[in-house]
Amino acid sequence: QVELVESGGDSVQTGGSLRLSCAASGPGRIYSSSVMAWFRQAPGKEREFVALIRWSSGTTLYADSVKGRFSISKNNAENTAFLQMNNLKAADTAVYYCARGSQYSSDQRDYRSWGRGTQVTVAP
Question: Which helix (H) or strand (E) holds 61?
Fold first, then answer.
């Protein structure tokens, strides 16, 4: 089972930037067939898809709400996925989770391995 650990969450002002990391370790690790994704959950709301990247090809997909502001990337050698978040808004405030799946999917039900999350707070 892979262990996913997120880091990089912080409190920033509107318009600021943050870079989240998701490090994978353990016997499961990240396979070439894997898809790594970021989801987020704001207080009182359902968890929602943010972005994903296919580990082998680097193909990406973004939620409409973050297109043009967020960028997902990866470092295969370090088994780490990243989420660069620019021009942050108060509406981006949430706990951000990374997840590993095997399907190119924005549905959280397709992801079986999850990190514990990292808090991002954007002050208006």
Answer: strand 60-62
Contact 100, 34 (CB under 8 A): yes
Q: Which of 78, 80, 82, 42 is nearest to 60 (CA)?
A: 82
48: tokens are 């929602």
User: What is the number of alpha carbons within 13 Å of residue 53 lying toward its C-beta?
Assistant: 22
Average pLDDT of the residues in 1-11: 94
Locate 38 and state its tokens.
């970021």
Backbone angles phi, psi at 96, to 5 degrees: -100, 130
Residue matched to tokens 């318009």 = 15
Contact between 97 and 36 under an 8 Å Cβ cutoff? The reply is no
Distance CA(52)–CA(121), nearest Å, equals 21
Q: What is the pLDDT of residues 72-104, one digit of tens each?
A: 999 988 999 999 999 999 999 999 999 999 999
